[in-house]
Amino acid sequence: MNALFQYISTVFKGIGTLLTGMKITGKYVFTPWKHVTQQYPENRETLKMFDRFRGEVIMTHSENNEHLCTGCGICEINCPNGSIEIISKMELTEEGKKKRAIDQHIYHLGMCTFCNLCIKACPTGAIVMGQNFEHAVWDRSKLTKVLNQPGSKIAQGVKE
Amino acid sequence: MGFNIYDFSGMTHNMHLWFSERMSPTATTIVEWTIIGVSYMLFVALFGLFLVYAERKVCAAFQQRLGPTRVGFWGLLQTIADFIKLLMKELIMPKSADRFLYNLAPFIVMIATFLAMAVLPFAKGLQTLDFDIGIFYVTAVSSVGVIGILLAGWSSNNKYSLIGAMRSGAQILSYELSVSLSLVTIIILAGSMQLSVIVESQRDSWFLFKGHIPSLIAFVIFLIAGTAETNRGPFDLAEAESELTAGFHTEYSGIKFAFFFLAEYINMFIVSAMAVTVFLGGWMPLHFGSFESFNVVMDFIPPLVWFFMKVLGVIFLIMWFKWTFPRLRVDQILTLEWKYLLPINLINIILMSLVVLTKFHL
Q1: B160 CB-side CA count, 13 A
Q2: CATH of A56-154, one of 1.25.40.10, 3.30.70.3270, 1.10.287.3510, 3.30.300.20
Q3: Above 80 in pLDDT, residue B8?
Q4: Do B324 and A22 touch (CB under 8 A)?
């Protein structure tokens, strides 16, 4: 008798679990406005990427064309596949001391794996991840970018 | 030729008269056969393509996607484009395959599908063959298809094909039992195996409601076993992609693959149409006993629309199964059939007999 009860209870338990699954998928199919697919080229104007999306490495510049990069080269050391090259130069400060500064922050987008290690390592927060993802170009050489804008200089009071 | 969307028997009769006046009896028969054959082929091609499109859209909705959207409005032309691509594909013959059986197999599967479709009542007077053993005929010819599947697996000279075909054979032979027994439950209630009589006797209330709990159990069992018999849904281990690449049709390409593909979807239609005809009143509108005005409004909708609405509803339910449940193992499939569905079915037949004997039904 006990076995019979067990048999019947397995049948009903099985039906119950099947209905639970169907309820979950039914919720998906009957709420079509919650679907996650986006119609990309159509929604290009309104498309906003997620905050943590890693599109490319960029260097932020203030309105006075000042950046935070000291040219220390820590990002270059931390890059696992050598997509960053730092070319630094020596500058004279007002006191007449020699000080290192960034000349060219070269970024090879074609080699980058967007691992975020350079941004984590940067002591001054000069480089961040940008949201742009449309990187297709006709020529490979266009993928090599200089991140610091021409004529820019380091902001006041940034220390290594 | 009078055209009445509520009753097609007058139209077919007038067509027969029109042909008979102009031709000899032999020519009339040949012309009528041709018309029926062409319309069935057109229906299979178009409805099969529509079902493939519907499956892709429904599957996408279950996975919170959009599905095909680019080819045509809402991607409506997607499956037509796919079909044109399939027609242009090269037909590949595997090395040392059994040439004759390899070419024969898709046609056997297709023929079984067409044979089963011949008795389906689409609307009043829109039924090609009206046997007095209609249900028995459907269960008989729908199991012919498994021969095609077994031949395809055997003749392909491929281990995946053979394993898939053997699994499919074991599965279909087991579940054929449940399908037949759940239909027997309804035959007891209806007192006839003729499909037109079964539909006609559901005028007042569908068999699903008429037979109370026994017919509800029979309906659920029929849906489960029917899904298994079409090698779909959670029972698709005959063509389990992760284990057997594509099962029995691994080696097929081009139009032969398209035959298997279309037959699979039309088989789903046949199972749904049988479920609708036997349990949900076929092309009969929904009637509730005493609501006269409601019944009149329901009568206003043509039977063809009723039939296809119900069929698409059942097809949606079967797709719901497929995109919700994970695939069963071989032992689980056989356990489900022999330890659960079969005993429940046999008890259900006794219950239904008691219901009919005591005239407890509506």
Answers
A1: 14
A2: 3.30.70.3270
A3: no
A4: yes
